Amino acid sequence: MNKHRIIHLGLKKWTFSLLLGLLAFGPFEESAQARRHRIVLPDGVKADFDITQQEATITLRGTSKNSYQIEASEDLRQWVVLRNRALLGNTGTFTYVDNRGLPKCFYRIIINGNSTAPLRSPLRR
């Protein structure tokens, strides 16, 4: 792989992360209404986020042989692994519920596929 291709792939991954960062969720509002967001990961899997004041539900839907690592951070510096190897089951879904009730939290999904440098998807509750 030549140097130009490596730089292009790195830029593509960086811009994807930036785009997801722009789609970030704002801090909690004083509302009982859930907020729903959907992003499509580079491998075609849909990531649905249902956010309430008490919890965030992350649901992965699709068909993929990849596994996913779900991480969370309160400050974008220190990340906590919520789920190390999430796999889509026979139904094509995987659901994780974060019920820690943090006032603000960023989420990212790392694709643990065949790539040597996984894509990171920062999302904020």
Protein described:
With 125 residues, the chain is of the alpha+beta class. It has one domain: Immunoglobulin-like. Helices cover 16% and strands 40% of the residues. The chain has one helix and eight strands; from the N terminus they run αββββββββ. The strands form two sheets. It has a four-stranded antiparallel sheet, with no helix packed on it. Strands 5-4-7-8 form a four-stranded antiparallel sheet.
CATH architecture: Sandwich
Strand content: 35-45%
Structural class: alpha+beta
Order of helices and strands: HEEEEEEEE
Tally of structural domains: 1
Q: Can you summarize the main beta sheet?
A: 4 strands, antiparallel
Low-confidence stretches: 4-31, 115-119
Count of DSSP-assigned helices: 1
The shape is globular
Number of strands: 8
Ends apart, CA distance between termini? 38 Å
Helical content stands at 10-25%
CATH topology: Immunoglobulin-like
Rg is 15 Å
Task: Please report the first level of CATH classification, the CATH class.
Answer: Mainly Beta
- Overall mean confidence score, pLDDT: 76
- Strand order within the widest beta sheet: 1-2-3-6
